[in-house]
Amino acid sequence: MKIKWLLFMMAFTITTVLAGCEPLLVLDPKGPQAERQARDILLSIGIMSVVIIVVFILLIYMLVKYRASKMPEDYEPPHIEGNPWVEAICIGIPVLIVGYLSFVSVQSNYIVESTPQGYENQEPLVIYASSSDWKWHFSYPEEDIETVNYLYVPTDRPLEFRLYSYGPITSFWIPQLGGQKYAMADMITTLHLAAEEQGELMGRNANFSGKGFAENTFSVKAVPQKEYEEWVDEVKQTAKPITEEKFEELLEPGHLGQMTFTGTHLGFAPPPEHNHGSNDDSSEHEDHSEHDEHAEHDEHSDHEGH
Hints:
Shape: elongated
Helix content: 40-55%
CATH topology of the domain at 125-279: Immunoglobulin-like
CATH superfamily of the domain at 125-279: Cupredoxins -  blue copper proteins
Distance between the termini: 105 Å
Largest sheet: 8 strands, mixed
Radius of gyration: 28 Å
Number of strands: 13
Order of helices and strands: HHHEEEEEEEEEEHEHEEH
Structural class: alpha/beta
């Protein structure tokens, strides 16, 4: 009786404690990419729950049915050979589960790596997101403004983040908008997101990058397009311009609050030239090819002149 009462109290305590918890951010999506990932997570949890429940039911059945009993000393259990159906089920079901989850994962990977569905015909807002110890720098080349440790983004518009780092490898992550992606020093990685609901979101560096990693966070405010334009106008009227000296100061290791500037550091501290996952790669290769052809033609003309 005491054991039953103890188990009841444990179940009641767990239920009441969990009821007061806020939902996990990855399961509270505010954009199409995060929504797709949340569905995949719930699908995986559902399949694993079914497997665990079946295993525990079979375990309890086996323990009850084949529990130890008092048998004669000369008792010999019957010889049992393998059952092909049981073996096929034990091997086939895991293979089917892994195959199905692999198919879903690959399909989802292509979806979240491309422009969010429903936004293919809209011009994305390009934001260069660069990290340093231990802060985030956000450059808006279209608006010619720059922020530190916070983002302002319009809702219902595709966002194209171009990520790189001025220090160790970091990972850019806004859980309620999409999955994380690495920011590195020698290349740009591209992340496509979109916010469909207004509100304040949390972003952070999800990759350990030194002692200040825990506070390497930033805030994201998603607002309607009109409010976003008003914010841009206000920044241009009130913020100070960013200078090369100020930017070098910002790159020094340490933590900072939120800061806003007019202009961007892209002019005097350009990002890496190599892009990974961006549609600009093909145009860059074409430009390099044309440049090489002109160079070869000029060299050939010089040889003919000599």
